[in-house]
Design brief:
The chain is built from three helices and no strands. By secondary structure, the protein is an all-alpha fold. The protein has a domain of 26 residues.
Length: 87
């Protein structure tokens, strides 16, 4: 970026990523390892998480998948989309 506005935006973005996340926004980690808040995940971490999610999705049955859609509020128990999603 070459404009002054662009430099300011970039500077604010970099500064934003280095700021710690407020306590009310922190979420618990599922693997028990603390994470440096504000630091983006690496490509390797994202790919590992994606692979893990795909393996879990391959193991569930159709009934379990449907139950998770109902629990998330995407579908109604009778199999239609919920109003929030256009049903």
């Amino acid at each position: 970026m070459t404009s002054e506005a662009g430099k300011e935006t970039f500077s604010q973005t970099t500064r934003f990523r280095k700021e710690p996340v407020p306590d009310d926004m922190k979420s618990a980690t599922t693997n028990g390892k603390p994470r440096a808040y504000g630091v983006p995940f690496t490509r390797r971490e994202l790919l590992a998480a994606h692979e893990s999610a795909l393996k879990r999705a391959d193991k569930i049955t159709a009934q379990e998948g449907f139950a998770s859609l109902v629990k998330a509020g995407i579908c109604t128990p009778d199999g239609k989309l919920s109003p929030r999603y256009g049903g």
